[in-house]
Structures are given as structure tokens and as C-alpha cells.
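User: Please predict structures.

Assistant: First:
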Amino acid sequence: MKFLLPLFSAAVLAASTMPSLANDRYADRPPVMVSPDLSAPWVLQLGQAPGIVRQNRQAVQQQPRQRTAQPDRVQTAGVPAPAKRTVMRPQINPVYLPQEVAYDGGQKPGTIVIDTTQNFLYLVEKNGKARRYGVGTGKPGFEWSGTHKITNKRVWPDWRPPAEMIKREAAKGRYLPTYLAGGMENPLGARALYLGTTEYRIHGTNQPWTIGGAVSSGCIRMRNEDVVDLYERVNVGTTVEVI
């Protein structure tokens, strides 16, 4: 087992010193840690990002290992076979998944209400019901409230970050492009709903692990599949209340 220690130390050092990715505008990716239990499969453990459910280590270790056929060969005494790596993918806390809920806010059906304290977006329906989605909202210093209309809708929108944002992020060592075409790498995600004449939008994200947190510069971010669903349910002119 002694020969495994340098490998383990190097892996831990690399994980602890990995810099933040430059295209992460608002939040770093969850840190990666290597399980110190060398007798179990390697487990990528997620950090404290909001909206993430982490699998219990004991449950991981109790999962049956898959055996693969090996060619006949002489085994070296005392040397364990290479462990198979198990990757845990970030998952959204089920509370932030779309669901029908009771709603008595008083707004008329078709109104969007965004609760920036609980990080929920409600699409008000009839008969005291609403469709609720989990969202990411403004981080400290970027909170806001108000009422606007949806003035535009875009599919896979382009992104032109404001000059103020470019300057602010450059001071942190994160250099943003002046223009980024729509697509999977675009931080606005699959759809965007523009609010009034502001620079705020309800939009998708390429950082789904941040849903449920205060993480943006004021925009309301949703999972791509959720913003696509909302996009199909509302029209230009829809009232949006941010509270």
C-alpha cells in the first residue's frame, strides 16, 4: 500500500490548487475531492454549492462492484487490483424541480411571481394553483425588486455582457468576452425572457448546480429544461413581479 500514498497526495494537492474557470461569471464550480479511503472506488465528492444533493459515502461504499473478466495472469502478492472510478453527477434538490403547488398570492392567472428570498418562480394558474420552478437569483449587492412586462423572447440568445460587468469580473481575474453567440457554452442558456427596458432577464444557464442560490448579477436563472417549459407557457406582455 505504500506506493499508493504519493499518488493520493498528488491528487489531493492538484484538487486543492485548481484555479477557478474564467467563464464562471458568478460562482465557481463545486470543488472536487478524492476519497481518502483507498480500499473503496474513487469517489468524486461535490462541495457546498446550493441546490445539490450529495450521496452518502457509506451508501456509495455499499453499492455492489461490477466484476469484469480478466485474462489469466500471475497476481503479485499484496498488490490490489486497480479500483474503478465512480463519478457522481451534480443533481438538483427535488424541491427546485417544477411542480404544481397551492398559491394564494392574489395575482391574476398568467402572472409570473419571483420570490428572491426562497428562490422560487411561480407561474400563477387558475383555482388557487401555480406552477413553481427553482431559480437562481441576485447575489448579495445585486438584489432587486419590481414589476415589469416581458418585452422580448429569444431562443438560444446571444450574450453581450455590459461594460460594467466586464470591468468588475476582470478585477477578479475573470475575463469575459464582449460577445458570445448562443449555444451550450453561453451563460444565458437555451431561452431568455427580457424584462421591461432593463438588462435583467429570466434565462437558462450552463451552471445548473447554482439553481436555488443567490448567485447572479440580478438576472433570474433557471435550468435549461425549465426555462424552455416556461418559455412555451408565456407570451410577450406577461407581467413579472419580483419580490
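Second:
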Amino acid sequence: MVFLANQYALTAEHVVGVRGERLLFEKLNFKCSNGTVLYLQGANGTGKTTLLRTLCGLSKPYAGSISWCGENINSLAEEYYKHVLYIGHLPGIKEDLTALENLQFSMALSGTPFHLLQATEVLKMLGLARGLNLPTRMLSQGQKRRVALARLWLQDSPLWVLDEPFTALDVAATELLKKKIETFANAGGMVIMTTHQEVIIDAPNFIQLRLDS
């Protein structure tokens, strides 16, 4: 996947986040373009997940605006959502389905064609060869995480929003995911992520943004 042929930009202007009656963050301003990895930092409870969900369009900011290529994401709606691949803190998989069935379901929701051979090879690469046809409830937390992350190899989206993507991964899988993020960014993709792990990402434009309580 090479996204450099298309120029994209995600811009946050004076964004305010509130949960209940509590102010989480205010007056956030940043811009991500092709090749950017935005590393969101902060202690638990500072609003990282709230901000990620807001950037995906799953929640609306209390104040301020978020735009994609100059247009408000809430106005763009589905036109924006098709550009975003969001993987939350929880795997977000259906535990009665197998790994392959979960990927087929996710691809259908995103409007991406599902290719059985390609999906099988990705899952094997991620160390799930023995669990392809098992209900995912029988998999470990690390294996469930890998099922969710397999979408990064299969879904053609220029913006990835990843909430703690390295959770429950072993050293080998962590390195594999790190290299995938770097390859994606160097091909012109955009990544907005948060993680408690100490992972250094080599990207054309690496930005650190800290939310303070």
C-alpha cells in the first residue's frame, strides 16, 4: 500500500474533551499528514481513549472541531469513516466466530473484499496457524489481539487509530507490529496511537502529544 499519491490531513482545532462533568483535555491543536505517527501519551484517566474515539467520529468533541482534508468529519460521516481503521483497547471480536470468520465479518463491515488465502497467510504469519478454525473464545488474550490486528495487513485505509495495540503481545509480535507501523507510515499512511509500552517508531514525521490530568 502506497498512499503518497493521495494527500491526506487530519486536523484538530481547539478540541475539548469531557466525560460526565469532568474536563479531560482542552484546546488541543495538531495536524497529521501523510507519513505521520502521532504517539498519544498520558496517565490513565487523562482522556486518551476518549480522544481516539473522537478522532474516529465515534464521539463528538465537547468543543472544537476535527477535519479531514479540510472538511469536518461529522459532516463527512461515512465518507470519512471508510478512510479510518480503528482498533480499540479491547480486541472487538466475536468470540463464537473463528479467527477467519471474524476477519471476514470485519472486512464486510469496512467494505473491503475478503480473500480467504490472504487472510489465512496473515493469521499464520501472526502465529495463529493452530487456531484458524477455533472459536476465538478458546484463544489467549494475546491471540485474540492478533486476530484484531490482522486487519492492519488486510484493510486498505490511510488512517489507523490504535488504542494500546501492543497489549498482550510477546516480544516477537511486538516487533512485527512495530515494523508494520513503520512500513505503513513510510508508505504515506497515518497512525494515531497510544501505548504503555516503550516502543520507538521510525516514521517520516513522529509527533508526541501528552495529555495531562
